[in-house]
Amino acid sequence: MAEELIMTARGSLVASGSLASDNDMVLDQSSSQAVMQPPSSTNIPQKAGTSVPPQSQMPIATVASLIETGPVLTVQNLVCTVNLDCPLDLKMINFRTRNSEYNPSRFCGVVMRLRDPRATALIFSSGKIVVTGTKHEASAHLATRKFARIIQKLGFKVKFLDFKIHNMVSTCDLRFPIRLENLNQMHGQFSSYEPELFPALIYRMVKPRVVLLIFVNGKLVITGAKTREETQEALDNIHPILRSFKKQ
After folding, report:
1. What kind of fold does domain 174-243 have according to CATH?
2. How far is residue 130's CA from residue 128's CA, in Å, rounded to a whole number?
3. Which residue from 89, 146, 158, 151 is spatially nearest to 119, judged by alpha carbons?
4. Contact, 55 vs 68, CB < 8 A?
5. pLDDT tens string for the chain (248 positions)?
6. How far is Cα 90 from Cα 121, in angstroms, rounded to an integer?
7. Do the domains 80-165 and 174-243 sit in the same CATH topology, yes or no?
8. Domain locations in the chain as residue ranges
9. For the range 225-232, what are the long-range contacts, defined as Cβ-Cβ under 8 Å and sequence gap of 24 or more?
10. Assigned fold of 80-165
11. What is the 3-state secondary structure (H, E, C) of 71-138?
């Protein structure tokens, strides 16, 4: 009778999941003894020597690198020039090309546009071309080459001289608000701030020679740099200054 009660109680415990069934028994090949598998719940302490699968966690180094990552610069526009070294007939260029505009009463040059890469050229009768709208140096060079090739196909004996990037416009978000009034008071020799005329503080950096537009929400526009290195140097110089004027 006692054995029947024990067997009945054991069966009910197995059915409810409180006790491992015979299917949960695993044969240890080294000792040929039956060893009970540990339950799936992590609240029950494990025996010494029992291996527990490691939990999937992000490495500490990865977390630290994410925390220490500084503000990221994004190039928005490049302005470059080239000299074709020959006089150009702007009326003829406008008449024989697509995607071009010429209104001498409003502007003295032909405005021509490309789709790939997306760029705009200002073409002058002296043979000078100003190209804007690209976001990478290689794209700027390619677009300028394409504009020169279009003009060459019209019969002009063009050259490709003195290609140069004159201005790199970049943006950045510092992700914290800035006390622009205090910044202007402390750095008045470099800055000007008239919020009734323009919402940003204008900061003229001496080295590198760039101009920064600093907005109260922490967003920056950096203009005047000719290389990405100059843009990054300007950000590295201004970032600790702006942190000291962070709104609490």
Report:
1. TATA-Binding Protein (3.30.310)
2. 7
3. 146
4. no
5. 444 434 444 444 344 444 444 444 333 444 444 334 444 444 445 555 555 555 545 554 444 444 456 789 999 999 999 999 999 999 999 999 989 999 999 999 999 999 999 999 999 999 999 999 999 999 999 999 999 999 999 999 999 999 999 999 999 999 999 999 999 999 999 999 999 999 999 999 999 999 999 999 999 999 999 999 999 999 999 999 999 999 98
6. 13
7. yes
8. 80-165, 174-243
9. 225/167, 225/168, 225/170, 226/165, 226/166, 226/167, 226/168, 227/165, 227/168, 228/73, 228/75, 228/168, 230/168, 231/73, 231/75, 231/168, 231/170, 232/73
10. TATA-Binding Protein (3.30.310)
11. CCCEEEEEEEEEECCCCCCHHHHHHHCCCEECCCCCCCCEEEEECCCCEEEEECCCCEEEEEEECCHH
Q: What tokens does 149 get?
A: 């090739």
